[in-house]
Amino acid sequence: MKFLILSLAALALLAPSMVEARPAQPAKATARKVAAKAKAKAKPKPKPGPIVAPDPVLTPSPAAQRVIDWVSGAKDNRSLPWAVVDKVNATLFLFAPDGTQQAAVPVLIGIMPGDEASPGVGTKTLASLGPAEKTTPAGRYLAKFGLPVAGQRVLWVDYATSVALHPIPKDSGAREKRRERMLSPTPDDNRITFGCINVPQAFYARQLRPTFRKKGGYVYILPDTRPIEEVFPRLRTQLTG
Question: How far apart (Å, rounded) are the C-alpha atoms in residues 223 and 98?
Fold first, then answer.
């Protein structure tokens, strides 16, 4: 027992020496760590990137929605893809045969308001068209791809009056600023064509052309001067039935 007490006492005397015998951390290493922590705290936070406004959501006007509801309810598209062109709002809505909306894009339309094509306009050259003849006629059309214009096949809405649906022509004058007009936030400056309907190139290549290429489809162009029931008589019947 005496031996155990002496051993514990000796160990207690050695403990401070053992603690003191641990190698001290170099001062330089400690200073580096402190400096690194201070630098990390002082490092400025990255500035947030510029706020990019989302693309505007294009929704049908009341008139366009009436036509959409009628076509969907009455199956007027006859199992073919279809599109509704709202001239007042310069917007096109694309639908699958079952009525599912596929896309909504801005469009460019005829310079002059009007819902009927001038007699013989389809036989005239673009240069010979008068201001009043540069209209996009309203109505229901069975559109199909046909003969090329300037080397490119187009979706003919009404071949007899030379109304087609296609991207902005590459040879359109720079002064017309068609691309800028199409991208503008309002439809006020979207009247610039000779009567055809211009759509975005990406939409034409990726959605419209593959959808209408096989059998074509129906295009419903809303009026901007005539009552909508005169252009689509079946719409009145659908609403009152």
Answer: 25
217-239 average pLDDT score: 91
Task: Give the position of tokens 């893809």.
Answer: 81
157, two tokens: 């809405």
**Residue for token pair 């809405």:** 157
pLDDT digits (tens, 9 = 90+) for 9-65: 444 444 444 444 445 555 555 666 656 666 656 555 656 655 544 556 899 999 999
Q: What is the model's pTM?
A: 0.75
pLDDT of residue 160 exceeding 60, the answer is yes
Question: What are the counts of helices (DSSP H) followed by strands (DSSP E) for the chain?
Answer: 8, 10
Burial 196-205 (b: 16+ CB within 10 A, else e): bbbbbeebbe
Residue 65: strand, helix, or coil: helix
CA distances from residue 183 to 75, 190, 202 in whole angstroms, order as listed:
33, 9, 13
Least Cα distance to 208 among 107, 76, 75 occurs for 107
Angle at 28 between CA 24 and CA 29, to 5 degrees: 70
Q: How far apart are CA 202 and CA 187, in angstroms?
A: 20
Question: In the numeric block, which tokens belong to residue 201?
Answer: 């190139």
Measured over all CA atoms, what is the biggest interatomic distance in the chain, rounded to whole angstroms? 130
The beta strand positions in 2-108, using DSSP E, are 82-86, 91-95, 101-106
Break the chain into its structural domains and give their ranges.
62-240
Give me the CATH code for the 62-240 domain, please.
2.40.440.10
